[in-house]
Design brief:
Blueprint: H1 5-13, H2 19-36, E1 45-48, H3 53-73, H4 75-87, E2 90-93, E3 98-103, H5 104-110, H6 116-129, E4 130-134, E5 146-148, H7 160-164, H8 171-186, E6 199-201, E7 205-209, H9 212-215, E8 218-228, E9 235-242, E10 246-248, E11 253-257, E12 261-265, E13 268-269, E14 273-277, E15 281-290, E16 293-302, E17 308-314, E18 328-329, E19 336-345, E20 351-355, E21 359-360, E22 367-371, E23 375-385, E24 390-392, E25 396-401, E26 404-408
Antiparallel strand pairs: 1-4, 2-3, 3-5, 6-7, 7-11, 8-9, 8-23, 9-19, 10-11, 12-13, 12-22, 14-15, 15-16, 15-19, 16-17, 17-18, 19-20, 19-21, 23-24, 23-25, 25-26
């Protein structure tokens, strides 16, 4: 739990302090405690002057009315807003549930080029309301205020506006949420990979050709190493799932220089879900059972040296309450871990997770690129566009034997 002693001591010594200064001490105490517990890598906390929130809402209304009208009138504008949402810093993402809270300032900055006057006003009001803003190395873009913007929570996407209507908030923003959900859920996918064949270069580089317009709609691309479920062959189990794919914006090519290596946790290939990407690193959730309980390993992947760092295990977001767990658990010797693998049914597109083999932690966990186990696999791409619609290529059969990959029939 939260250590209240630091700021209570400050309050006892400074009984006439302002709310602003007390708020700062609370935030500093939170950061100090996080450092002591080695959980300060992606914390955020802000001290907000509530008397200035009405000015933020007024500026938000001025911008969002324009954005809302634009997404109704144009598919291109809808895509632009979806793309801005995908790039903005957001919070509360686990492997199978999402809070759909996005940093308001980060979102506005992504839309700034198209709405310069309105964005300038809103950013100024946010800065005026947030008296103290604490960021962290893995949350550098936090501006202190977040807002609900349905995006990743596909199970509740269409019903989201109905739930949001109950809250006492800007009518213009709630109208925007309704418009976005209606337009995005009704929009047919512009990326069609059903009849697109994967190309193989030199037996190792696997590629997919899209049009330039389609590439501009891509949010995330995963290269998939799969196997068929023996009990239900329509289920493709993603025994290896990675985002190390090169996207060429100019010619529409997606290339995965697959060399027989896959990300492995203590020697076992794993499924990892990208939830944030910066210039120097990417953040992933890796679903597991930890001592029989569902968790996500929080993973940092450095683009400078290619190494992975496991920050700890997190229970994620409660699927019913949408409340994100506040605790991060450190993995210790003797813990029992079962990797969980994402699967998708080719016919129905239903999905879920299946269990891998359990292992007991006897030394620090290792997450690294290693040569995969010899055998026959399926290979393909899993694409999520900037409206969060999913696209799966047809799979090709490959064989990995004695360190060599070859395409099979």
């Amino acid at each position: 739990g939260w250590d209240y002693s630091k700021h209570l001591k400050y309050l006892a010594a400074n009984p006439k302090t302002s709310g602003k200064n007390l708020g700062k001490e609370i935030a500093k105490g939170f950061k100090s405690q996080a450092k002591e517990q080695s959980t300060d890598f992606e914390i955020t906390l802000a001290v907000t002057n509530l008397s200035k929130i009405p000015a933020v809402v007024t500026s938000l209304d001025g911008m969002i009315k324009k954005v809302s009208g634009d997404i109704v009138s144009s598919d291109n504008n809808l895509r632009k807003v979806g793309n801005a949402r995908s790039k903005a810093e957001d919070y509360g993402n686990s492997s199978d549930s999402h809070t759909d809270l996005v940093d308001l300032g980060a979102l506005v900055k992504q839309l700034e080029d198209d709405y310069p006057t309105q964005a300038k006003s809103l950013l100024k009001s946010i800065k005026g309301a947030v008296e103290y803003n604490m960021t962290s190395p893995e949350r550098p873009d936090a501006t202190g205020l977040s807002v609900y913007f349905p995006y990743k929570d596909k199970d509740n996407f269409k019903s989201a506006p109905n739930s949001y209507e109950k809250y006492d908030f800007s009518k213009d923003y709630k109208k925007f949420v309704r418009n976005y959900v209606e337009r995005a859920s009704g929009k047919k996918a512009d990326i069609n990979v059903n009849n697109t064949n994967l190309t193989v270069q030199d037996g190792s580089a696997y590629g997919l050709k899209l049009t330039k317009a389609q590439v501009q709609q891509v949010d995330k691309v995963y290269s998939i190493l799969g196997t068929r479920d023996k009990a239900n062959p329509s289920n493709v189990i993603f025994v290896g799932m990675d985002t190390d794919v090169v996207i060429d914006d100019d010619n529409g090519e997606l290339i995965d220089n697959f060399n027989g290596k896959r990300v492995q946790l203590n020697g076992k290939t794993v499924s990892m879900f990208l939830y944030s990407e910066q210039d120097d690193f990417a953040l992933y959730t890796l679903p597991i059972l930890l001592n029989g309980v569902g968790y996500d390993l929080l993973v940092n992947r450095s683009f400078k040296n290619g190494k992975f760092k496991i920050n700890g295990a997190w229970k994620g977001v409660d699927p019913k309450t949408k409340v994100a767990d506040r605790n991060i658990v450190k993995i210790k010797t003797g813990d029992k871990i079962v990797p969980l693998y994402y699967y998708v049914n080719e016919k129905t597109k239903s999905n879920g997770f299946v269990r891998g083999s359990e292992f007991t932690v006897s030394s620090p966990l290792k997450l690294e690129n290693k040569k995969m186990t010899s055998g026959d696999y399926l290979y393909g791409f899993y694409i999520i566009d900037n409206l969060q619609k999913e696209h799966f290529t047809k799979y090709i059969n490959i064989s990995f034997q004695n360190g060599k990959i070859k395409k099979t029939k």
